[in-house]
Amino acid sequence: MKRISIFLLGLLTLASCKNEPKQEMQAEQEQQIEPVSNEAMESAVIYEANIRQYSPEGTFDAFTEEIPKLKDLGVKVIWLMPIYPISETRRKATQDLSIEDIEDPEERAKYLGSYYAISDYTAINPEFGSKADLDELVETAHENGMYVILDWVANHTGWDHSWLEEHPEYYTQNEQGEPVDPLNPATGESWGWTDVADLNYDNKELWDAMTAEMKYWIEEHDIDGFRADVAGEVPTEFWEQALGQLEETKPVFMLAESEDKDLFHNAFDMGYNWEGHHLMNQLAQGEINVNVWDGYMQKIDTTYQQDDYLMNFVTNHDENSWSGTVFERMGEASEAMVAMTYTIPGMPLIYSGQEYDMDKRLRFFEKDTIPKTKGKMWPLLQKLGELKNNNEALHGGKEAAAYNRLKTSADGTVLAFERSKAGKRVVYIANMSDQPVDFELDLEEDLELYLGSGNFNLQENDQYHFQPWEYVILENN
């Protein structure tokens, strides 16, 4: 018996010794990514992950397997669309119908509802997996040098949330004392978000409760920040006090679904470039010319503080499902517009499926799947991501590189600008029309072609001919 005990003790000791390097290796992996910082965001690309539609399985595990591929696209921030359980009550089947309007049980079963009708802020949608699966996703992202932020819906909850029973005082109520769905403050009419109940931030106890729910994910699951849904509909003061408490645990990155400059003072790092996005659509559709874009760039230069910055995009979950695909809205201009989102000040966004030339509108309330065949967009995003990550002239955060409009002989049609920082220079030139254009532009000889859609060579006589939607990106030696 004693010999067996000694033998078992030896095995346990050996196992312990074998585990020590593994534990040390895991600790090293966990420390591979530096805390969120302004410096890290200067060169970042952000990826919006629609877990439900990313794979046939629609799970965390299926997405986690492909995180290393996103590193090839220069992704540094992964934004997970809402991962929480979705309320059953008043669940959306279409924009106009709830599941209560669908009589056929089999038909009702296929409607999964909106991610933004949350029944529990600190639980996981079981369709996606478990909290352990989420932890593996976060760990894998960190090992690959990427931060993970969660989509946070502070403006409203689903109708199954326990607060409706336990804390009805947290909600906006009508004259009968009944909770209501969110209303347009300008008209007092419903936005049509009938699957959610509006929260009332006049109640300061709600501030504490909501902040605690956010803090849970940072403390327990190592989340690196949040994208705030309809951030401007929630008081700025709430976000400011929440950030102060969140950063008691660690630095976080905050993205607002808003262009409201007041949100950037003490609450958010980055906002949405909604106006710029709509102008890109209008440029692609021939509704405006480049002069209008120039006016917009001058406007934001005077409207925002120097350390404010915006997220640039040609698509996202709302645009894809409700306004149309990139190709529907931008057509032959799509590639030039994507390149533009990487070269103007700010941070470029990739939405799930964009990297695979997705040319369909993803269903919003039902299961769908993005394509997984690489076409033109993957190598384009790879090249753009490499330039964004490595060239200081494309820094787009709080210490953004300078933006300088270059004068051409066809400024209403040709968009040409230079970004510069620390001796590095990047130049973007594009014909923003569906007609060929001849123009003059004085370019310095030390520039080299990095990327382009045509056969471009520097001309000694400064004369250039671009085909419709032709673009180039140049950098200095």
CATH topology: TIM Barrel
Largest sheet features: 8 strands, parallel, barrel
Architecture (CATH level 2) name: Alpha-Beta Barrel
What is the total domain count? 1
Strand arrangement in the largest pleated sheet: 1-2-3-6-7-8-9-10
Tally the helices. 16
Instruction: Give the CA-CA distance, first to last residue.
Output: 76 Å
Radius of gyration: 25 Å
Overall helicity? 25-40%
The overall pLDDT average reads: 93
Specify the overall morphology: globular
Q: How would you describe what is shown here?
A:
The protein has 477 residues and is an alpha/beta fold. The protein has a single domain, classed as Glycosidases (TIM Barrel, Alpha-Beta Barrel). The protein is 34% helix and 17% strand. The chain contains 16 helices and 17 strands. The protein has helices spanning 2-30, 38-42, 51-54, 60-64, 67-71, 105-109, 131-143, 163-166, 204-221, 236-246, 274-284, 290-303, 317-323, 326-330, 334-343, 377-390; strands spanning 45-49, 75-80, 147-152, 156-158, 196-198, 225-228, 253-256, 270-272, 309-312, 347-351, 402-405, 414-421, 424-431, 437-440, 447-452, 463-466, 471-476. It has an 8-stranded parallel beta barrel with strand order 1-2-3-6-7-8-9-10. Helix 10 (236-246) links the parallel strand 6 and strand 7. Helix 9 (204-221) packs parallel to helix 10 and helix 11 packs antiparallel against helix 12 (290-303). The termini are far apart. Mean pLDDT is 93; it is low at 1-31.
